[in-house]
Model the fold of this input.
Amino acid sequence: MPDLSVASAVEALKKLEATSAAYDHVLGVLSLDASTAAPKGSYPGRSLTTGVMSGLHYQLISDERNGQLYEYLSAHADELDEQTRREVEVGKKNYDKMHRIPMEEYVAFRTLLSEAQAVWEKAKLENDFAAFAPYLEKIVDYNRKFAGYYNPHMAPYDALLNEYEEGMNTATLDAFFAQLRETIVPLLAKIQSAPQPDDSFLRVLCPVEGQRLLSGQIMEVMGLDRNYCGIAETEHPFTTNFNNHDVRITTHYYPEAVASSLFSVIHEGGHAIYELGCDDRYNGTFLYGGVSMGIHESQSRFFENIVGRSREFVENVIFPRVKAIFPAQFASVSPLDFYRAINRVQPSLIRTEADELTYCLHIMVRYEIEKQLIDGSLAVADVPGKWNALYREYLGVDVPDDAHGCLQDVHWAGGSIGYFPSYALGSAYGPQFLHEMEKDLGDIAPDLRAGDLTRIKGWLRENIHRHASFYKPGQLFERVCGKFDARYYTDYLTKKYTALYLE
Amino acid sequence: MPDLSVASAVEALKKLEATSAAYDHVLGVLSLDASTAAPKGSYPGRSLTTGVMSGLHYQLISDERNGQLYEYLSAHADELDEQTRREVEVGKKNYDKMHRIPMEEYVAFRTLLSEAQAVWEKAKLENDFAAFAPYLEKIVDYNRKFAGYYNPHMAPYDALLNEYEEGMNTATLDAFFAQLRETIVPLLAKIQSAPQPDDSFLRVLCPVEGQRLLSGQIMEVMGLDRNYCGIAETEHPFTTNFNNHDVRITTHYYPEAVASSLFSVIHEGGHAIYELGCDDRYNGTFLYGGVSMGIHESQSRFFENIVGRSREFVENVIFPRVKAIFPAQFASVSPLDFYRAINRVQPSLIRTEADELTYCLHIMVRYEIEKQLIDGSLAVADVPGKWNALYREYLGVDVPDDAHGCLQDVHWAGGSIGYFPSYALGSAYGPQFLHEMEKDLGDIAPDLRAGDLTRIKGWLRENIHRHASFYKPGQLFERVCGKFDARYYTDYLTKKYTALYLE
Done:
């Protein structure tokens, strides 16, 4: 590219990034529409459009000329500002990856996913794993194949893990999960022989209208500006974002499980706070948005658990609001009763409803199955059996059917294998962030008690959110915390649940 | 293109059409999201994406190579099936048009509209025409300029009319509107000196939850399959469609105006029936979807008025459902009271709330203003004054403020000038379609009384809907009805309102 100047190359890069961001936006809106508003039978037409748009996006990113552009810009890296330098690095990585994926495979995979989503929804509703199995088989095959394109030098599952948490691998996770089990399993045994709090009042009827009101109030406490953050209703709650001024959270209301949507909203709200806190400068560039699934989950689970399930916040912020909206339902419940019920430990079937202590055991089940699906030692047909056996082994529960078993999560239908470990990592990052936060801010308990999250959000924004994807996840974490150490997490769990059950 | 075979040229055409349809789909979803779900402050990011996507769509359609493709295919027209031949014709027309519009202008216009929508919403809410005026000025300028690109041989306003109703022009409309006025104005005068029915019960509180239920029931009567037709809530009701298996209607609920949403749903439901009735073969081609705004409005207004406001349907289908949902509100109302109230003639301020008789007078106001804006004889700053004067002249009402005057409609903010006359044309096509329908089916009164729209929908589908955009609007109309004659409409109005008021 002898006729290129640095200025014109940078201009070409920025245009490429803006175009790519527009494709992300429309693919995101199609998917949001599918989950929140689209009539059930509309998916074939949307699949076609998703296929066309994904193909065009693929062509854009993998265009040969981009290879030359990145080469030229890399050669002139010292003439670029540091943001552009990092944009080149991220763009080049995506280019190399996409360039290795044949377009037909890429488009076929996107189109498959668009169908798989609808098939999974129906299969879950009808408890029909056999209907979903052929799709899961194809999704596993694609993932195995794509792993080789993502990183031909890594073991396939490691390559997939790196899509969600750059730098992560099976060796690290095996050790991490072993460490968690060493703490959780004996702690859980002790808890299970201790007296259990009553949580029956969490299952009384709380009409959806009131729950919607509660969502609004909690979003207000969290400082989620409704001008830039919408809320919609879906089967499976998630957060999606189009830029740092357009974030959508979703929730699902169960009339007889008021805590379910409540903590979904706080969890998704944590994701939204991260996205809304990214610096404007990254909008429309490759550095836009949260940097990894692990860091993202660290934020959502920070708000859900460290903030949302803390004694201070539950007793002083959540409970008064719940009681004001549903006075009859909670007339004879004290703040402490409510706190204990919210944190009741109960090995159970559904990950998204799990308590904070047993949550990671749910992740381990999925981690083991994913590893074996990808290395070929487990056939898709054997997933339900394996799932049920692991739930028995890790959580001591019997899975009654696949709707409450291996069909419960959307992730595999969405094409994501290697994503689940991020939830456990995110859970573990949180307490280490808290440790650093309290070094700077002192005890945050008064903030939680007052329902004033300003300082907490400010610290997270300053140290994490505003950087969007400028730093790699490991790099970002180490800038803030130094070396990752799961003991912050295990100590946090031990302290919290000892106080709740064993003192 | 000497190396082209007819087969490969047709393949290239079909791919172009599928890609274009995908852009239409995503631009439509962006716009639907904007009106139904997006947080208010999110429009700048959406404007950027709309700009990028419109630019790519423009490039796709106006690509020089398409010109060669159409030339080649036109030269081999006798080797094409009749559908492909028509696709070539429509594609070529769009190509010629788009090709004349400079890309920067096209993208700037789309981006402007994305902003203008948000500005208009706020201006209407705050009754602040001055805030919207700069946008309207630009929109008028663009329309005037684009008219020359659309058709350099026509007067600008005629060229704009042709975008919505191919073959229409000012001369025809002037005569048409004059003919309407000759009937409506004296009839209205007689009605206004006759006794007026009580319609106060239409303004009692009917909670929105019940109104939502009513929408669902009416959609069921209309045979709108919820599997393929969604309903959402917006400020200004509209229908949008992505293919013949994915149509969305919208409505707006006013707690103290139950008839407002009710007839919106029937009106938009009529649009939806048209789109859902298009043959599958046209999906993803240039012939997809209803052929013109006039024909579209003929369908929506057929259902809204000829079906929905008929005595048979109101008394036997609508009223029992309204009364079942709101028993206390309508305890002392008879079916005939309700029918008369629904059809009460009352010159008023708001087009979408207008009765069937005075409706076209609202259109004439807009028609006059549009003509003058485009020929330059009216400045944007003078629109409110002109609007108010015409409302006084045509409808005899005083406009209290611009929110209830020239800011009431979304169309100009959406970039559409020349669209409004379609409403009047559609209203006039309907009774002529009815005349032909009853030649084939006999009296449809029993169908209306039974709430069984099967035969009516079947006839419309057979004669109109299934053809999508295969025939030009005038051609389609003439195939069904022969020559257009507004007397079917004026006779229909005279008969209906004489029976209601003067017998």
Remarks:
- The first strand of chain B starts at residue 229 and ends at 233.
- Chain B touches chain A through 39 residues (CB under 8 Å).
- The mean pLDDT of chain B is 96.
